[in-house]
Specification:
alpha/beta; Rossmann fold; 2 domains; 7 helices; globular
């Protein structure tokens, strides 16, 4: 699903690190699942949470309700946008995200457009096709519509966070307190979870374990639109990374002695 700030193009790199030490039966949790472009590539026990009620209603209807979305024209798009309370939540969610430019919630109608090279591109048909493929991979996911702070997370879970980036365009429901979020991450790590965070930058007690240059419409300069250079990074609490290295050390020593 096209979604503002999606990490789909980095999914393979991110999951190689996040899932490297996953145990049998261990839960994989996303507090900010958004377009589900990472969790749809993960198997086993999974929780997909997002604070956006219309987004989660959409996913639940697509995955478990057997709902098939229809094409939305510009007139109906505007009608739904201006009368949200009069339409089912899953319809509002679909229209707001999948019928909008760049996957930004009601960020402007996206339908058929004539490209600069003379072809016609149908964004909604592409959205229906892409999400139909995703639905098959999301069967078994537990969907949740809560603030990340109110989630119930199974013990010893893997938590991958892709929160609204600090000082960038707000693309989730409500204001986001980044300082409170980082403190929550510390608490989850201390409680025995393995925590990973996608962000451009992090507090000093978090360590970058992966980075990659990228062009993004959701850039660190806080403006939306166009193509801007950025660096995607994956962070973990420093003490968590040190503990992992210590745990790996005996295995590495054993390998060297055997060689």
């Amino acid at each position: 699903m096209k979604y503002m700030g999606s990490k789909a193009r980095f999914a393979k790199d991110i999951l190689e690190i996040v899932l490297s030490d996953r145990k049998d039966g261990q839960w994989y949790v996303e507090p900010f699942c958004g377009g589900c472009n990472i969790i749809d590539r993960v198997g086993g026990n999974r929780i997909a949470n997002d604070a956006h009620p219309y987004l989660i209603a959409m996913w639940e209807s697509l995955v478990y309700g057997g709902w098939i979305p229809e094409m939305i024209d510009a007139e109906r798009y505007t009608l739904i946008k201006d009368n949200v309370a009069n339409f089912p939540k899953h319809v509002v969610g679909w229209t707001g995200f999948n019928c909008s430019y760049s996957g930004k919630y009601f960020g402007g109608f996206a339908g058929e457009v004539h490209t600069k090279i003379g072809t016609v591109r149908d964004y909604q048909s592409e959205a229906i096709k892409n999400v139909s493929r995703q639905v098959k991979s999301l069967s078994g996911v537990v969907f949740s519509n809560k603030s990340y702070q109110d989630m119930t997370i199974p013990p010893n879970s893997i938590i991958y966070c892709d929160p609204p980036y600090r000082e960038t365009s707000e693309y989730k429901v409500g204001a986001f307190d980044s300082d409170a979020f980082w403190e929550w991450c510390r608490m989850q790590s201390r409680n025995g979870h393995r925590v990973f965070v996608s962000e451009y930058q992090a507090p000093n007690d978090f360590e970058c374990v992966w980075s990659k240059d990228a062009k993004s419409s959701l850039s660190a300069n806080g403006r939306y639109g166009g193509s801007k250079d950025s660096v995607e990074r994956l962070f973990v609490p420093k003490w968590q990374e040190r503990a992992r290295r210590i745990a790996d050390a005996p295995r590495q020593i054993g390998i060297m002695e055997t060689a």
